[in-house]
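In response to the reviewer comment on reproducibility (Comment 2.3), we provide here a single inverse folding case reported in full, input and output, so that an independent group could reproduce the run without further information from us. The structure tokens appear first.
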């Protein structure tokens, strides 16, 4: 089972390596990845932020530092405080829309905190009645603020443009959530699969808005030659209705699970770039040594995560492609910050 999971992950990662869609989707944040990685490691202190809201609790765990879901008053369960938790799991994403505004300072000496302060000081979101669901620091001069509706986003963007002279604000391209259909027969065409999702699963979908979309992004290796996993990009109502369910696809009933929009490089195990454009040293996803994960001679030994090793984190042993890795969780959260889940 574990082995099968490993194969699946490697297949997904391999496919992602050649998937232009994913790359384009992450274009926004990928430009300064190295810089961010270093900076975040340096500033492994809390960066939880709240705009005009209650005082932010500073998480102790650096892994929770980058993405801060805000205004979620947690009834003081102290024992949970130090537990690492997913900064932006899909469950969290599900509950809050992400109509995102990318706010950026042209001055490289500014930090993302400076950008947030600029907005705080000049834009009164309370008076304007703008709900901000999430504030995410992308890199030192960039911040994403996610609003609850297109109207609020427009208002926030306008206000920033008028009131803040030192930062720019623009909407990010709204990205659709992804699901993975596990084990679909490969004889079906993309078109047939897309059609099947809608036409054979009305019991789950109910009546959908007319502009609902299902688009095949790629197929990843399945357990046999005949079946593959299919990654789809779907409209938020479809994602909501089908993720975690089983879908009728042709003569099959297949699991539909949430798919992270994050790209992990299967060559160096870094994030937000493809192996084809990777300039880093090759790292095994299982043992962190310098060889291809697929030919790892240390499969039977305890895994070691190259990203945690680099960051000198001493955590439960896990492979570099594990979703338990703080780096994976951090980048997953950032990637999801611009996805419209509802
Ligand atoms: Zn790489
Ligand atoms: Zn290895
Ligand atoms: Zn790790």
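Designed residues, in position order:
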């Amino acid at each position: 089972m574990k082995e099968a999971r490993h194969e699946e992950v490697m297949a997904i990662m391999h496919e992602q390596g050649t998937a232009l869609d994913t790359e384009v989707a992450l274009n926004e944040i990928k430009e300064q990845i190295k810089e961010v990685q270093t900076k975040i490691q340096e500033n492994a202190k809390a960066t939880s932020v709240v705009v005009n809201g209650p005082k932010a609790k500073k998480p102790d765990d650096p892994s929770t530092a980058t993405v801060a879901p805000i205004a979620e008053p947690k009834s003081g369960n102290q024992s949970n405080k130090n537990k690492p938790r997913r900064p932006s799991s899909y469950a969290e994403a599900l509950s809050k829309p992400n109509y995102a505004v990318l706010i950026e300072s042209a001055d490289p000496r500014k930090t993302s905190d400076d950008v947030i302060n600029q907005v705080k000081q000049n834009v009164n979101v309370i008076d304007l009645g703008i709900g901000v669901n999430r504030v995410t620091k992308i890199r030192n001069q960039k911040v994403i603020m996610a609003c609850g509706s297109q109207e609020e986003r427009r208002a926030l963007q306008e206000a920033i443009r008028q009131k803040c002279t030192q930062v720019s604000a623009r909407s990010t391209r709204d990205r659709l959530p992804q699901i993975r259909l596990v084990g679909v027969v490969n004889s079906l065409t993309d078109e047939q699969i897309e059609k099947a999702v809608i036409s054979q699963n009305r019991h789950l979908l109910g009546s959908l808005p007319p502009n609902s979309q299902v688009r095949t992004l790629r197929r990843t290796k399945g357990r046999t030659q005949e079946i593959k996993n299919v990654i789809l990009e779907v409209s938020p109502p479809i994602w909501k209705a089908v993720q975690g369910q089983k879908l009728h696809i042709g003569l099959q009933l297949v699991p539909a699970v949430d798919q992270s929009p994050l790209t992990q490089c299967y060559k160096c195990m870094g994030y937000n770039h493809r192996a084809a454009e990777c300039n880093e040293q090759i790292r095994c996803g299982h043992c962190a040594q310098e060889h291809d994960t697929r030919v790892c001679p240390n499969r039977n030994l305890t895994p070691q995560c190259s990203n945690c090793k680099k960051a000198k984190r001493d955590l439960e042993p896990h492979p570099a492609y594990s979703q338990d890795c703080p780096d994976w969780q951090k980048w997953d959260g950032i990637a999801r910050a611009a996805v419209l889940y509802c």
